[in-house]
Amino acid sequence: MVRTKRWTRSPRGEIFGVATGLAEWRELPPGTTRIIVFLIILFTGVFPGAVIYLVLAAILPKQREEDIISEGESCSRRRYSDPVMDARFHESNESDKERDWDERFKNM
Fold first, then answer.
1. CA nearest neighbour of 69 among 14, 15, 27
2. Exposed site from 40, 61, 95, 108, fewest CB < 10 Å?
3. Same domain assignment for residues 30 and 69
4. Global confidence as pTM
């Protein structure tokens, strides 16, 4: 499954790639996302939903190679494959946060 850093039009999409791009951005199943988008378009009276979909297709950029998140990469922080290193990473971040709060309260 492909994951992207931002919402883009996916080249793997059926119609303009808007729904598939949303699914890849939010790590949702593409088929389910397409059905939900179709139902939204259907229940909004077709015209408003279809217009919004077409506007999104025109506004959203086409997916590029740098938009794709690789298997080991994370948007928010680095993850270690070793559980011990991952635990140490969390501990160091928590102690940094605690130290930061301590400094803030001391300065008050």
1. 27
2. 108
3. yes
4. 0.62
